[in-house]
Amino acid sequence: QVQLVESGGGLVQTGGSLRLSCAASARSLSGYSMAWYRQAPGKERVFVAAIRWSEGSTQYASPVMDRFTISRDNAKNTVYLQMTGLKPEDTAVYYCAAAESKYSDYEYWGRGTQVTVSS
Q1: In the beta sheet, which residues pair with residue 96?
Q2: DSSP letter at 14?
Q3: Quick count: other Cβ atoms within 10 Å of Cβ 18?
Q4: Distance between CA atoms of residues 4 and 40, nearest Å
């Protein structure tokens, strides 16, 4: 069982930056995939970015490529999402997710953190 706790959301103006954090309670995240998803009001939850914990390889959704960076800290069992050049359309609840392997679904989810970008 893995527990995920997000933090770092808030209100920011267009063009601003935020860094989200996701602390994981697992003893080891070796082999895991970690991801960020987001859900805007009235819309479905969509993929934002992912990172393979062991290799550090990353993947991004097209709307955030070149603006967002996903990273992890092995010592802290924490994954980050650095967001720059924020736009009003980035407004959403951001969720952290974990999968036990690259072949697994994301079965562990945090409660989410609100990001609001004002125009």
Answers
A1: 36
A2: T
A3: 21
A4: 20
**How do strand 78-83 and strand 92-99 relate by DSSP bridges?**
unpaired
SS3 90: helix
What type of residue sits at position 69? Answer: T
> pLDDT tens across 10-31, in order?
999 999 999 999 999 988 888 8
CA distance 99 to 2: 9
H runs (alpha helix) in 1-119: none
Task: Give the tens place of pLDDT for each residue, 42-77.
Answer: 999 999 999 999 999 999 999 999 999 999 999 999
Beta bridge partners of 37: 47, 95
Using only C-alpha atoms, what is the Rg of the chain? 13
From residue 114, alpha-carbon distances to 26, 72, 117 in Å are 24, 21, 10
| DSSP one-letter code for 107 | -
Three-state secondary-structure class, residue 88: helix
